[in-house]
């Protein structure tokens, strides 16, 4: 589904990603872990098309197509979804209005008819249940005044409605209490399909107790320095990132 | 003494002559007590003339097109407009009381008075002047000071018609009262002076809407509107002002609000019409525990100039004022915002917050924003902030990452910027109408 080859990217003058290679197949869950500043959030944002980053070399193929050549909205319409680490507050428009606008744009891109607000509310019912919310959240302004946990739940709600093929969760577990973590993880698990894939970007192992990854990659200094099975996450949790940083330092 | 010598020069003289003609004829309508007020007002205007950019209050506001124009006094439309022509400006429910003024004169045929609670008086000012309506002598031209603005002086000198609303004590005005001022093609080259008086008694509740509209876009005229509003003790008032004059017209408006103890006054001002549009909104908090909320939105394009001057006078302790004005500017348009908050020495425990935020959609739009706090009490909480900027890149990316194309994401976020302030309007049909107008103007989703 996703093939990343030799991906390098800058933020301004600074090179953050220094050659990433990663292949994600349909049905898989990949965890990308690493210390602060390793570039893992940059990787997530580059995949979604964040304008703050400039790709300097490498390529990313999504379902065989050049992902980097697509505008962010085209990526979304093609099924790529980024759950933001810091979801944006949009005072002035309701959660329902925003999400229906997005949903309809994606439908339009597929040649489907737009849904009106009544039909959309029906469709929302199941999705809201997934994140254990009532309908009242939909009349609040997008993320405006939401707690950290509510913002993350809202990202999962958007994901549930937009039904992406490739979901990228950027630090979705950060700032969550244990209940919110359970709800968020439950949502992600419920949305797993054999034809979809998930990339979980996280600093901590604890989300991976709930969402079990097929592969774990460790990002350090803009490169993937180690890949392994789910046990690698436990090892990192036990030993910390210093262990790997030293190992990588010694090898280079 | 009325005559030459005012610094306004020849053009001002035209108003003085007009006033002389007026007072010698039957059109000098109104009760006796009003005449000295009119005369004092025209004398004041004779002394000052029109303001210029040398006047601090008018520094960024080019009033020359008004001052140099030869405006005839509007005298109503020769042929009345149809209900169909008026329909685009009507909203809410059919039973709402609607007073319609065409080219400055009350139109009984287009107006409709709904069911009113006992003691409530709603009608045209011209009629109230003939009948010396309740509260008229006590309040009309007693609050909006003629020495604060030459335009107010002209209004007091020449006022003929407008809305008159009197709500006695302990009365809930169940549905809003909508005052609609329509300019037709006949308004070309004229000035009208809509003059409104709203008196809300103790413990009463009212919603008032003023709309300034045109059925003849492209017509050049001048509206010089003044509204005086008195909020009695423990009253609750929502006041909405919708200004969508012809974009070739000039609009100068002043709203003067007097608040007694425990009253709640909330204002929403939408400005989207006019070549030059100026609105002064002044609230005087004359009792304790008063709450004043001022919300505003201006949407400008082309060469429009939208100017909002607000003043909040904290004269007594334990009052709260909260102000948010926002602007969306396109083309070569320009906005002026000046927000003054005065806190008197005795107004301890004042809580005042003022915000002005501007969104520029073009490189050539400009904003002059100036918050002004003058605080003479020591135990107060007063803050202000002003911003001028563009849409946030990260927010745009957020919307695009959800599948919304770039141009629509811009519209969505621009609409959201504006809707954040319209959402403060309590009365749902009014809020929906404001949202509709914003969407229509921006071309939003």
Plain-language structure description:
The complex is a heterodimer of chains A (252) and B (445). Chain A has helices at residues 40-48, 72-77, 95-109, 117-130, 148-162, 178-190, 207-210, 231-239, 242-251; strands spanning 2-11, 14-24, 29-33, 53-62, 65-66, 80-83, 90-94, 141-142, 166-170, 197-202, 215-220, 223-228. With 252 residues, chain A is an alpha/beta fold. In chain A, the strands form three sheets. In chain A, strands 6-9-10-3-11-12 form a six-stranded mixed beta sheet, with helices on both faces. Chain A has a four-stranded antiparallel beta sheet with strand order 2-1-4-5. The longest helix of chain A is centred in the middle third of the chain and has 15 residues, at 95-109. The radius of gyration of chain A is 18 Å and the shape is globular. The model of chain A has no long low-confidence stretch (mean pLDDT 92). Chain B has 445 residues and is of the alpha/beta class. Chain B has helices at 9-23, 34-48, 64-67, 83-86, 125-131, 136-139, 150-158, 393-400, 406-422, 428-442; strands at residues 72-73, 97-102, 105-112, 121-124, 163-167, 177-183, 190-192, 195-200, 205-214, 222-231, 236-244, 250-259, 264-271, 276-285, 291-300, 305-314, 320-329, 334-343, 351-360, 366-375, 381-389. In chain B, helix 2 runs antiparallel to helix 7 (150-158), helix 8 crosses helix 9 (406-422) and helix 9 packs antiparallel against helix 10 (428-442). The N and C termini of chain B lie far apart (59 Å). Classes of the chains: A alpha/beta (252), B alpha/beta (445).
């Amino acid at each position: 589904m996703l093939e990343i080859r030799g991906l390098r990217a800058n933020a301004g003058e600074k090179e953050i990603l220094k050659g990433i290679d990663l292949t994600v197949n349909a049905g898989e869950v990949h965890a990308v872990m690493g210390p602060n500043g390793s570039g893992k959030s940059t990787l997530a944002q580059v995949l979604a098309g964040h304008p703050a980053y400039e790709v300097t070399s490498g390529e990313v193929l999504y379902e065989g197509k050049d992902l980097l050549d697509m505008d962010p909205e085209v990526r979304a319409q093609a099924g790529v979804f980024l759950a933001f680490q810091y979801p944006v507050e949009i005072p002035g428009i309701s959660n329902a209005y925003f999400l229906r606008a997005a949903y309809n744009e994606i439908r339009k891109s597929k040649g489907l008819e737009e849904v009106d607000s009544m039909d959309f509310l029906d469709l929302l019912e199941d999705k809201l249940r997934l994140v254990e919310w009532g309908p009242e959240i939909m009349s609040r302004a997008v993320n405006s005044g939401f707690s950290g946990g509510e913002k993350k739940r809202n990202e999962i709600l958007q994901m549930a409605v937009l039904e992406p093929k490739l979901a990228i969760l950027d630090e979705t577990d950060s700032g969550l209490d244990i209940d919110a973590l359970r709800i968020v993880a439950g949502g992600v698990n419920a949305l797993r399909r054999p034809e979809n894939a998930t990339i979980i970007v996280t600093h901590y192992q604890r989300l991976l107790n709930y969402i079990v990854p097929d592969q774990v990659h460790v990002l350090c200094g803009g490169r993937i320095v180690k890949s392994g099975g789910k046990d690698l996450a436990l090892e990192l949790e036990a030993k910390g990132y210093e262990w790997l940083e030293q190992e990588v330092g010694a090898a280079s | 003494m009325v005559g030459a010598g005012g610094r306004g020069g020849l053009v001002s003289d035209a108003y003085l002559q007009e006033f002389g003609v007026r007072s010698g004829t039957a059109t000098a309508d109104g009760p006796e007590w009003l005449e000295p007020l009119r005369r004092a007002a025209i004398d004041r205007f004779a002394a000052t003339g029109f303001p210029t950019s040398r006047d601090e209050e008018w520094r960024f506001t080019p009033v020359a097109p008004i001052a140099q124009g030869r405006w005839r006094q509007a005298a109503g439309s020769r042929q009345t407009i149809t209900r169909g022509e008026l329909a685009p400006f009507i909203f809410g429910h059919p039973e709402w009381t609607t007073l319609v003024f065409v080219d400055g004169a009350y139109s009984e045929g287009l107006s409709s008075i709904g069911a009113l609670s006992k003691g409530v008086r709603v009608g045209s000012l011209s009629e109230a002047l003939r009948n010396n309506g309740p509260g008229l002598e006590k309040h009309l031209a007693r609050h909006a000071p003629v020495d604060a603005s030459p335009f107010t002086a002209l209004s007091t000198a020449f006022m003929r018609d407008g809305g008159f609303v009197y709500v006695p004590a302990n009365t809930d005005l169940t549905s809003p009262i909508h005052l609609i001022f329509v300019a037709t093609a006949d308004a070309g080259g004229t000035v009208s002076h809509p003059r409104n008086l709203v008196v809300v008694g103790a413990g009463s509740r009212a919603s008032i809407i003023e709309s300034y509209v045109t059925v003849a876009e492209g017509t050049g005229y001048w509206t010089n509107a003044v509204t005086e509003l008195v909020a009695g003790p423990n009253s609750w008032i929502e006041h909405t002002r919708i200004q969508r004059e012809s974009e070739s017209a000039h609009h100068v408006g002043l709203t003067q609000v007097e608040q007694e103890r425990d009253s709640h006054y909330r204002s929403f001002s939408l400005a989207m019409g006019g070549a030059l549009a100026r609105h002064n909104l002044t609230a005087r908090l004359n009792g304790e525990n008063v709450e004043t909320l001022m919300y505003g939105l201006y949407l400008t394009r082309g060469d429009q100039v939208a100017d909002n001057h607000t003043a909040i006078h904290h004269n007594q302790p334990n009052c709260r004022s909260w102000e948010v004005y926002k602007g969306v500017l396109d083309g070569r348009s320009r906005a002026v915002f000046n927000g003054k908050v005065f806190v008197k020495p005795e107004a301890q425990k004042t809580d005042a917050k003022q915000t002005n935020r501007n969104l520029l959609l073009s490189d050539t739009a400009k904003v002059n924003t100036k918050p002004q706090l003058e605080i003479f009490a020591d135990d107060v909480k007063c803050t202000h902030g002003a911003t001028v900027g563009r849409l946030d890149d990260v927010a745009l990316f957020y919307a695009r990452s959800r599948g919304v194309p770039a141009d629509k994401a811009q519209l969505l976020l621009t609409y959201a910027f504006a809707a954040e302030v319209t959402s403060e309007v309590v009365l749902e049909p009014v809020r929906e109408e404001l949202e509709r107008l914003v969407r229509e103007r921006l071309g939003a989703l």
